[in-house]
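A reminder before we start the practical. When you read a complex entry, don't treat the lines as separate problems. The point of joint prediction is that each chain is placed relative to the others, so the output describes one connected object in space. Small molecules and nucleic acid strands, if listed, are placed in the same frame. In the example below there are two entries. Take a minute to note the order of the lines before looking further.
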Amino acid sequence: MNKMLKRDMFVLGICAVLFALFQLGFTFKIIGSFWQLNIILVCINIILAVSLNLINGYTGQFSLGHAGFMAIGAYVGAICTVKLALPLVVALIAGALFAGFVGLLIGLPTLRLKGDYLAIATLGFGEIIRLTVLNIPYIGGASGLTGIPRLTTFAWVFWLMILTVFIIKNLINSSAGRACIAVRENEIAAEAMGVNTTKYKVMAFTVGAVFAGIAGVLFAHYFYLVHPSSFTFMKSIDILTIVVLGGLGSMAGSIIGAIVLTFVSAVLASYAEWRMIIYAVLLIVVMIFRPQGLLGDKDLTERILNRLKGGKR
Amino acid sequence: MPLLQVEKLSKSFGGLLATANVNMDFNQGDLVGLIGPNGAGKTTLFNMLTGVYTPTSGKIIFNGKSVVGLKPYEITKRGMARTFQNIRLFSEFSALDNIKVALNFSCKQTLPEAMLRVGRYYEDERRITARAEHYLDIFELSHRRDDYAKNLSYGEQRRLEIARAMATEPKLLLLDEPAAGMNPQETAQLTEMLRWIREEYHLTILLIEHDMHLVMSLCEKIYVLEYGRMIAVGTPDEIKANERVIAAYLGEG
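Here is the predicted structure of the whole assembly.
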């Protein structure tokens, strides 16, 4: 078990080096502001994708409401800093907890549903959240909430992204995580083995919502404003696309998916009319040649480590 | 007091009466067989016992308490575990992890402890890994420890399912056609294994099986279902001589 701790420390070391390199790049203007924006977006997208993967990939519950939880985080966070003049830390905690709470409330009734029905119900709840926000004048209504201070720095997004990956990875490898995957693999058998399937579905859904909330707070405090149109159904689809492209049930897949798709969107931004076509073609090609996603359900680290040890898996 | 007592248990699906007024009772340590032609309602009965179906009427008293209306996982925690007719393993899990899922409810870690890998996380992992390895060992699956369940041979998958059920530490083990698809050698091996675990763990076993040789040599008490009704109960010799059972299996002359 100590080996695990050593490995974590090693990975943490690599992350620190990466962070230092990027930070230096930003300070000395080696990395331009366009790329800086996209690197920050990558980090936010990783948080979103990894947390959605917990729900859709690992627990196998097809949710389409992730943008809704992101919206809750963004608005609650913005209220904290703009209206109540609280620091970012408080905004992050409030946004995360509130999103988690709503996730719990929505999860309890909807997770009785399966497959397509669950997808439609979560899609509906996502839209309800957005439309509710749209109709509250206190938080700007249709014109959005403006004047949010830019408190999100690269350090915040980077380390919160690392924390998200670390926490969800640990969760997956714990008894609770095995219970979640067992629900995906065979719900009847999981229940027969003493797994309270409802409890673990709701847990995965709530934890996913918490991290979507965090991503929302970071998003709001980077772009100065939050607007209901940022959290439409299409945003949920974007996050889902990252997860599916990377591979449902693969942590490394979500990370690589987020990096690839964020940069593809960035590069294609200058060919606006071609963007959606190329994006669609890319997805079709991946789904034809690798329907299980870029990394399948394998985890990159696990694969490399096993290969280094000469083991088979 | 009997370990399991079933009284007038009925289940109907729409107009179809899958089981009608079924009575059963047996004691701690019994090895009981449940036989009957295809579609007799054997698996339906299992599904009612384990909470997958709610009975239309009737009582199920397990270990002194009614288990009607409980969720399957609650019944499992009370000491009833099962295997499935069509194997239901977690195919993307290793053999070891399959068993670890069954040990899940004995874990004491809280969610934050698991997320941050602190506190009881390591203790739990160490303990349940050791327990899981113990069950792999008993069912002679240690050499397949890290292989995906889907890559195991058919006989191995059947054994792994029993091992997984055993890991929940049941008082009563329900086996739905454990020897289905096994060759005679594997069946003989399984028979020995069942005898052994029953002695070792003071287990009560109820098994559905079509392999008459296995049922007759292993079980002390046999129930026979036909069209949802219990038509006979008795020792293997009584069942072999029972006119109605012979009629049900061979047709009336």
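Discuss with your neighbour: Chain B has a mean pLDDT of 90. What might explain this?
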